[in-house]
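Input for the complex:
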Amino acid sequence: MSIAFKQETFRDDYTYSNSPEAIRRFPFPFHQDEYMYSVNMEPHTPGAVGSVFEHPFDIDEHYIAECRDRAITLERDPGRCASLPHMMDAEWDTLELIMESLSNSYPELFTLQKDGTRWTWINRPLDLRQSFTFGDAATLPCPPFEYITRQTQGDFVIMDQRENNLFADAGMITAQADWSLAFDIGMSFMEWHGPVPLAHELGVFERALKYLLMLQQGRPVRRLNWTMTINPRLDTAPETYPEWGQDRACVTPENVGEKVHLRVELQTLFRLPRSNGMLFSIRCYLASMNDLATYPRWPARLHRVLKTLPNELIEYKGITRYRETVTEWLARRDNGAELAPGTQPE
Amino acid sequence: MNASFNIEIRRIRELAPGIREFSLGRSDGEDFPVYSGGSHIVLSLPLGERQHRNPYSLLGDPTVRNTWRIAVRKQEQSRGGSAWLHEQAREGMRIDISAPVNLFPLDRLGRHHILVAGGIGITPILSQARELARLGADFEVHYAYRGPEYGVFADELETLAPGRIHHYVATRREQIEFSTLLAGRPLGTHFYICGPAGMVAASMNAGAALGWPESHLHSEQFLAPTGGEPFDVELTLSNKRFTVPSDLSLLEAIEQQGVDAPYLCRGGACGQCETEVISCDGELLHHDLYLSAEERASGKKIMPCVSRLKGGCMTLKL
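Predicted:
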């Protein structure tokens, strides 16, 4: 398998686009016509060939452009990557897990050679070759967690497990749906999820935390989360709100199809071996309304979800300003026929 | 990373009367993953017809990946697991084990760590001490055993942390006084214990009396076994009747019958597999995180991914 990597941007002129294959494999998250929070976690076992679930970490046509966009964000704000001092074992755990996974999943793109603790990492898409001593951070150009997550699509949090709780004690966060690592770092699971509406009352976080505390090595789990973003922008952080917040006011009936994007996060969780910590990967997929309209099921389903979505969620996800415009656009693509359950495009 | 491994017993060592050490290697010759100090594995032992699952702490160096070590004391009240390992197990035999699970982890924010072992309880303490030594952390070990010949890992510990190991030998009338050991410790100290139940309880009581926060007092926990007693099930909609064996969950047994039951998390949290109980003549053992107390009390619902029946037969609307 070879991937044709795109030259594209996630800011300024926004040249990001999805190929027909990328649209087809888009992880559309709505099984049914209404959406509500639930503990929608399942074992992260290999999915169908070509799907975003095929490998533990998914690499797609946006890989090089996403790594570049992360580098730009980090250049402007190095605090988007942070790690507390007791997380060094978890950093190496993460580097090992990602290097082993990527080199197994995509041998034509990535190679990991090991001679005891002398390791060589070859990343062909980014044209990198690095020899280093596993466990000795001085032999890498930057700390191990930053080193490997600069080369991986998706945001990452490493959670430390103690006191029957999970603490967000390290993170590489440059593609977030409006939350701040600088604000949340060191928080417990409940503190960090504090702002989410309705889910606490449903007991979702309490059950999710108990489930995750028992997560075992070699048995990762996954879930999908979603929001909407104007323009294909990865960096929608509170820190840069002045740069993108106003875009929500620019949606018109004429530009909905290209401006409004469904933003889906494939969230995966892995128990880390050395540190007993937990890696939380938040892999973001963006599809414009035009992209979704390729398959009639999707705009029809999304129309029904948005129409029935509780106001608390509309507000929390930042959709309020353009909800009506996008719902009307989708309504014209929904003939009202019953849709069978499932997220499939056809 | 695998969730389980087939291993070969590479070496058996008699450490003391009734205590054996087993060195394990992967049958496929690959390396094990690393693990964190305090981790245990679950061995599936072939006791007659059924698999018997016993948890044992990994006691070696967590970074050594070609060999894992466990030590087993023959239990007088053995349900068969430790007796099999003492009487039947031979070098070269192959069995299945789980990936490591750690329910006795070190707190990485601790400023000082007090590790206490009673007898064979030394096994998780050994891997914890090795991890602390590797991290350059401040720690001390208190090791209590019946007689000099039972201090089977004393030398390994001394090599690891010279001057930081304290021995208590019962035949010399030496005993750990927890009210002294735990008194006057600076904030940020964490306490870890593995040993006989009475000893663990005494230490927890002493800690509580001295005002230690519960979050700083740790004792070894094992993963609850996933299986249980066999029981009979009838599915009304799919018209099946079968027995759930001890080593399968109810959900797994339903799937084995070719019935397409709903599920998602397989850990009792998501609610997807909730199933209506039409009738049952045994006690429902609810292990899920989902059903409310009222739903449990009603006896009308079960989460087949983790819950089962104690004895008898149940009828499910499935």
